[in-house]
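Read as amino acids, tokens; as here:

___
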Amino acid sequence: MFKSYSMDLAGRKLTVEVGRVAAQANGAVFMHYGDTVVLSTATASTKPREGIDFFPLSVEFEEKLYAVGKIPGGFNKREGKASENAVLTARVIDRPMRPLFPKDYRNDVTLDNIVMSVDPNCSPELTAMLGSAIATSISDIPFAGPCATTQVGMIDGEFIINPTADQKHVSDLALTVASTREKVIMIEAGANEVPEDKMIEAIFKADQVNKEIIAFIDTIVAECGKEKHTYESCAIPEELFAAIKELVPPAEMEEAVFTDDKQTREGNIRAINERLEEAFAENEEWLGLIDEAVYQYQKKTVRKMILKDHKRPDGRAITEIRHLAAEVDLLPRVHGSGMFTRGQTQILNACTLAPLSEAQRLDGLDENETSKRYMHHYNFPSFSVGETKPSRGPGRREIGHGALAERALVPVLPSEEEFPYAIRTVSETMESNGSTSQASICASTLSLMAAGVPIKDMVAGISCGLVTGETDDDYLVLTDIQGLEDFFGDMDFKVAGTKKGITAIQMDIKIHGLTRPIIEEAITRTREARIHILDDVMRPVISEPRKHLSPYAPKIVQINIDPQKIGDVVGKQGKVINKIIEETGVKIDINDDGSVNVCGTDEAMINRAVQIIKSIVTEIEPGMIFTGKVVRLMNFGAFVELAPGKDGMIHISKLSEKRVNTVEDVVNIGDEVTVKVIEVDKMGRINLSMKPSDLAPKKESK
């Protein structure tokens, strides 16, 4: 049965249609927000997937270019692999919803969102987030929702709920908050050094809106919601836990995990697993569950040690950061390099500078974003965690970590006018034991400064963790979590920023939300740790961006010309500009506003190209002096190319102070000569002189 529900959301109409399309999915909604249309579906398999110890959730965000009236480029006129924006959107949908499914649920679930029409003022990403939550809530899939999501911008200190495309471009904040009816469950933010107290205010402004949306969703679920289906639980039998504890008492498990060395701890657990496999060799049912059972035993042990005994696996205090180290200039030939180490987490970052023409071109649903000048890429090779597997290129995690670091650094980058370069930083994970994304931010800051990029301020990142008890008041926030505390804890709260304020947040949790006191404490802790990293670790290594670029980096000179002269510089079919490039070996980028970037590694050739361009666009007047090449000889004189397409003639009488019998006695084709413009006649013909008396500056008469 088709039903339609509507509410006002930030001054625009949100409509949810149920039963109109996709009836065979477990749950489906046709979402309309303004003129944005997204089909969101939730589908589950009828049986659990065998042989896995995780919940197999897949989230898709499919950008259809017909939604913005485009045909895909390239030879294959179909949409290709998911764009970076699609991957990041899918991750933002996944993170708040995953904790709301049962922990022992092993049925495959797919949340699919197809963007079918885009209104620039009504975010398709937000529409899909709400659609996934509603589709799952009305389905028969077990789900402890609903949840809702709101975006917040900030212009002149005022918060904007679900900002339009134009508002986003001038906003100092790009915040996305997901909530259940009681708590905040996900935070994602990019910010222009927003103070901590202002960020907390924005988070709970979004939380208020989310509660209104959830009340709206409740009315839909009440009328259209299906009864949740039963499922086959994959929980570990209590009898197995009891048998394991007899063989491995809690004190032994504590001793196994209580070490600051990851390899030692993994070796201890491996030895325990081998003992248990030998002990249960005849019980095939239990043999297949040992790995998961030991994992959960470790988890309970670590959580108890932290929450009740205030002991961390590596012996640190609750607010203590692991050993930190920073270095620059590890790679001699790259344009800039920096390495940041935190305990057993280590990132080596390389910075590359290039002309703006090498900025990344984007072909997506956002017509205002057609290129990206700063690119941060993150790589996570298997050796960084002591494993072996083939490299298959970046996955969703790598893309997400790279985007987080990129978002953290964009607010401090110089403008194109200040620094006319495309910039790429690449974070190579050398070693990983928790929060490599935040180490990437620190290493990127170091490499940018080492490369001479005049960033406005230094940026650092740190992550806080959480272990909770039975009540909302029973919790402990941990500064700088390592891998084990991330795996077994309830939260990974990453915050990056300068001393002035926050530039990025990403919060992942495994429980059903966070209270305001937890969020406030985590943000306060990350600020304290961030200031320590900036002042005591990074600044002593490199206190400000270098004044000069690497000798291996391209040099760029920017000049401005009359936009109406662009055609003269380019020439017919590009002949003029290509000749300049061929002669000097530089790269030339010309923008519609008349700004010209000349890029190369040879400073003399850059200056030569600039001189040629200026000579092309400059109106030639008597008295000007040029250096040009002789291109043609006649009986009566020589023609000199002053600039591409602009020749002048030196009459034979103007070649020398002495009498000249033949032109060849003084000049030949290809000679480079310095000349002065004597006259530009009514026909536009340019007459030149090489005579020293004409070239010499005239003395002022007394």
Q: What stands out?
A: The longest helix spans residues 196-224. The chain has a mean pLDDT of 93. The longest strand covers residues 36-48.
